[in-house]
Amino acid sequence: MKIPRVLTLILAGGEGKRLGALTKKRAKPALPFGGVYSLIDFPLSNCAHSGLENVWVIEQFQAHSLNHHLANGRPWDLDRTYGGLQILPPQQGERESDWHQGNADAIWRNRRFLAEFGADLILVLSADAVYRFDYRDAIAAHLEKDAELTMVTTEVAREEASRFGNVKVTPKGRVSKFLYKPEKPLGREVTCEIFVYDAKILLQTLDELVARTGKPDEEAQLKDFGDGLLPELVSRGRAFAFPLGGYWRDVGTVESYFEAHQEWLQSETPFALDDPQWPIWSRFKPRSPARFEGEGRALNSLISPGCVVAGEVRRSILSPGVVVEAGAKVEDSILLGDVIVKSGAKVRRAVVDEKQTVKKAVDGGEEIAVVGS
Fold this sequence. Notes:
Elements: E1 6-12, E2 32-33, E3 37-38, H1 41-49, E4 54-59, H2 63-70, E5 84-88, H3 103-109, H4 111-117, E6 121-126, E7 129-131, H5 135-144, E8 149-155, E9 165-169, E10 175-180, E11 189-198, H6 199-212, H7 229-235, E12 239-243, E13 248-250, H8 254-263, E14 291-292, E15 297-299, E16 302-303, E17 308-309, E18 312-314, E19 317-318, E20 323-324, E21 329-331, E22 334-335, E23 340-341, E24 346-348, E25 350-352, E26 357-358, E27 362-363, E28 369-371
Parallel strand pairs: 1-4, 1-6, 4-5, 8-12, 14-17, 15-18, 16-19, 17-20, 18-21, 19-22, 20-23, 21-24, 22-25, 23-26, 24-27, 25-28
Antiparallel strand pairs: 2-3, 6-11, 7-13, 8-11, 9-10
């Protein structure tokens, strides 16, 4: 059997408005997670362990914060002379150049580069979720079914399903119906923003959708996959679902970001981030070991290198360089890099963005407080 040529696209250009101040000065995929990781580390590590050597990252908002972290793909062994990691910013000087209006639009505006690459399959990923997955399983299922589109799916609580692409699947795995962020979900099964496309069909379908707008290329705009592309491919009858079969958590809102961190504070975590067989790799800035001073202590917490704890920390995650002074308390919170909690201050149910100094009480109460510049 001919081994298919696979190109992976990671869509890293979303504005991340639902995360508020946390994405004001950084791209959403660059948002820290679990103390020492960033969200884009998860798809990149999965690509590396899945043996996918051609990975392109499509950027837009706050690209500098992401480029700094990507480091030319070195942490994921993607800094190669041939293939490896490539970055695609919004283009200028082409007829189709413009600010990306959605993820389908982002791919269409880069279609010339995709066509020139000559892939048989295009694997499209978002960087909004925390999970571990071997993409080769979905690719193999896609080839076995001779599919035009394979959607990796999972189940979420029914009240959350309206946040995602919702699917109805036949007993043989074919997607018979797709609704994008419906007010009344079809059920609990949703897409994980992991898609395997037949490359030729994908590019043809995008061109057809643009043609239907009746506008010239320089004026035409597509939106997200769910607005046109996915419903079109589902209607053709060759779209299939592939169950993820493990932990998957979207962290595109402050609430889901906070809840996902709480899951890593349990005695049994969703999966081991440093599993020798499938570690999550990242770009680390060297830091000295965490230090506890005086009566400083931390209970049921994750304390990153470079932290200094002289106060009390409970059920919290501290990113590198956080300082909790004597007499300060941190409970049920996430503190990003180089935060300082001054003596006498108490932080509870909050996410504090990097390099902030907390001098007085911050309490999210029933909500989650976000402290940012």
